Amino acid sequence: MSKFVKLEKGFNVNLVGVAKKEIVDSLAANIFALKPTNFHGIERPKLLVAEGDLVKAGSPLMFDKSQPDVMFTAPVSGEVVEIQRGDKRKLLAIKVIADQHIEYVNFHKYTVSELNSLSKEDIIKQVLASGIWPRLIQRPYGIIANPEDKPKAIFISSFDSHPLAPDFDFLLKGEDHYFQTGLDMLRRLTRGKVHLNLDSDAEVSTLFGSVTGVQVNKFSGPHPSGNVGVQIHHLDPINKGEVVWTICPYGVMQMGKLFLEGIYDASKILAFAGPPVKNPRYHRTYDGACIEKFIEGNLAHQNVRFVSGNALTGERIAPDGFVGYYDHLITVLTEGDYSEFLGWLKPSSKKLSFHRAWGLLSFLKTDQEFDLDTNTCGDERTFVQTGVFEQVTPMDILPTHLIKAIMAEDYDDMEALGIYEVVEEDLALCEFVDVSKHPIQSILREGIELMLES
Q1: Which residues contact 251 (CB under 8 A, 6 or more apart)?
Q2: Are 338 and 356 within 8 A, CB to CB?
Q3: 217 near 235, Cβ under 8 Å?
Q4: How far apart are CA 82 and CA 79, in angstroms?
Q5: Is omega for the bond preceding 394 within 30 degrees of 0, making it cis?
Q6: Domain end (from 245, 261, 277)
Q7: Would you say residue 332 has pLDDT above 80?
Q8: How many angstroms separate the CA atoms of 84 and 87, rounded?
Q9: Residues 380 and 244 in one domain
Q10: Which residues make Cβ contacts (< 8 Å) with residue 19, sequence separation at least 6?
Q11: Which one of 76, 82, 358, 381 is CB 3.0 to 4.6 Å from 98, fit for a cystine?
């Protein structure tokens, strides 16, 4: 039975520079990278290629020794031009210069009748080999799903409520058949339901509104209403010992195309957006694209920060950096490398703040878009308990107490206070509104790592 959930808690961070719904139909980048640092839980990546090797899209580049059947594969065909390492020879990136015409590894291409007779084991085997498996994320902990687990349910959020987030209905336009096939495959991987969650405040989706065989739920309210962790909490909370899987709509489409076409298609439509961007729009490219080509002649000024992902949870990258495996957005923000004496005392409608004492007039204009920079307006200081974390977390947990339990390394309290239900994105707003300027997301990941080690 479908459910409707209306969320009251949360906060929308509306930024100037949303991508216009027009696509630059070119690959733009010619160098692509697979970055092991994009994946939580990988500890011992094992290389399968060397510099100078030729690969096809879908060729294995590496695996992790803890899950050797999960392959991480090339997004494009071409030559491996660099194996980038960091301190203590930590593997940072595998870079491939792309061919002009992409060639693919040929996986088994199934007919409709063959799809209907596929077993769970057959599905898992092909998804593992293709490189799509890392799109399946396990909750708790937000790590790559273990193919040997039996998830009680699978959850898909069809919308993203983060600032400047792309529209998945636009990204996957025309991919209806592949998306439905992907859902059909996912249904065989769980003993429970596949939940597809929609934004009730948006127009009826031509893609997500016509699916069959899954439970369709609707969510309404401010960010983080689009976070799959928040949705799980309100639909089927995770208890100790339980496992659920999540996957983004793009991954579902990829899975459908894998079985119908027999290829690992890592092509994606990427939003390039943010206040300093002259012409924010979408670009057609591939996973792991170098962003250098997107930047050329498209910035109002050069004092900027590039973020793979959104402004709340994304990863800072260099001007010649690479798009993250899970990202469909490059956010550009002005660097806030300045000090403003008593700036918080000046009433202004141009400053956004959850606290009415700063940016005093911004709360009167709920739909206003803001040109924000990266200035945190202060440094880390003593933890001040204000109760504001609970106001932006639409879950029945106590985030302030949870963060303190993590800092104290109190395993029992971490478990009791809800660490199984959250990952970084679920508490990102806590970091945004924190007057103490603590790295809440990093602290939470440290707590998750402690739980994984225990």
Answers
A1: 132, 135, 136, 182
A2: no
A3: yes
A4: 9
A5: no
A6: 261
A7: yes
A8: 11
A9: no
A10: 164, 166, 271, 272, 273, 280, 281, 282, 329
A11: 76
Residue type (1 letter), 83: I
Q: Does position 337 have pLDDT exceeding 50, yes or no?
A: yes
- Angle, in degrees to the nearest 10, between helices 249-261 and 176-187: 90
Model confidence at 254: pLDDT above 80 = yes
Six token digits for residue 374: 């990266």
**How many Å apart are CA 300 and CA 413, to the nearest integer?**
48
With respect to residue 298, please indicate whether it lies within any of the assigned structural domains. no
Q: Which of 410, 448, 449, 412 is nearest to 427 (CA)?
A: 448
pLDDT of residue 360: 47
pLDDT tens per residue, range 80-138? 999 999 999 999 999 999 999 999 999 999 998 999 999 999 999 999 999 999 999 99
Last residue of a domain, one of 261, 288, 319: 261
Number of domains in the chain: 2
Q: Rounded CA gap, 31 and 74, in Å?
A: 12
CA–CA gap between residue 34 and residue 287 (Å, rounded): 8
Amino acid at 37: T
Question: How far apart are alpha carbons 254 and 184 in whole angstroms?
Answer: 13
In a domain, 107, yes or no: yes
CA-CA distance, 1 to 449, in Å (whole number)? 36
* Measured CA distances, 370 to 17, 197, 310 (Å): 9, 28, 15
319 in any annotated domain = no
Judgement on whether residues 247 and 382 belong to the same structural domain of the protein: no
On whether the CB atoms of residues 330 and 271 are closer than 8 A, the answer is yes
The per-residue b/e assignment along 88-124, b for 16 or more CB within 10 angstroms, e otherwise, is eeebbbbbbebbeebbbbebeebeeeebeebeeebbb
pTM: predicted TM-score of the whole model, two decimal places: 0.94
Tell me the CA distances in angstroms from 72 to 59, 64, 132, 192, 286, one per residue in order.
Answer: 8, 9, 8, 28, 15
Predicted pLDDT of residue 420: 96
Domain that holds residue 426: 376-454
How many CA atoms lie less than 13 Å away from 344 in the CB half-sphere?
Answer: 11
Measuring CA to CA, which residue among 374, 446, 39, 392 is closest to residue 227? 392
Whether residue 106 is contained in a domain is answered as yes
User: Smallest Cα–Cα separation from 419: which of 392, 445, 384, 383?
Assistant: 445
- Whether 255 and 390 map to the same domain: the answer is no
Residues 6+ apart with CB under 8 A from 174: none
Q: Provide the CA 394 distance to its chain's centre, in angstroms.
A: 19
